[in-house]
What does this fold into?
Amino acid sequence: MREAGVDLDVARPYAGDVLPEDLTRYSGMLVLGGDMGAYDDASHPWLTDVKRLVVSATADGTPVLGVCLGHQLAAVALGGEVGVNAHGQQIGVLGVGWTRAAYDDRLLGPLAALGTGVDDVPAVQWNNDVVTRLPDGGVDLARTGRGELQAARLAPSVWGVQWHPEAGAEIIASWAEHDRDDALERGVDVYRYLADVDAAEERLCTVWPLLAHGFAALCLASGSARVAEMPRVAETARK
It folds into this structure.
């Protein structure tokens, strides 16, 4: 996003950073992931502030992009619902199953056009929860072959993706190490998934900068070319 000309103001509320009261100084908001849940406001009060900013941004048309937990927070803020994935944890490299609506979407359309098969656009996923109901007016943009929501336009200027476009082998390795014991108890070979990420690295690095540049373009068009990036959770965080 910096390469695209955006000035990032990074806030880490989980580490004590204070979030802005509103987004009047900003032209967009990027909400990243974390290992807390979308309803864990009691133990993580700053989640309420993030949701408030999503609602405010929606009202004035400020672009918002939510990634994993950020996607779930935006969905809940706008009236949708999040729950534990009925199919179990999603982990590893999955193909993106674009819907028809995705091809006309102003943010994700160029990515949907990259291929005609579900495996043409790979994405790294690492999550237990998924958006189970879209907000009123939300548009389904991608689903897995099992039916889990992968991406949506939650409002005219608000998007969410369940995958991690920012995550490559280095980041996933830290998550795998953190989850190793729990994964072994569940019979999950996280290192096999890490190998899948490593094998897909070249394609991942080709595809996902396009999302960053596309979102940056929307922000630049919306105003002051400043983006609040919140919350950017430490690399060991996962959702």
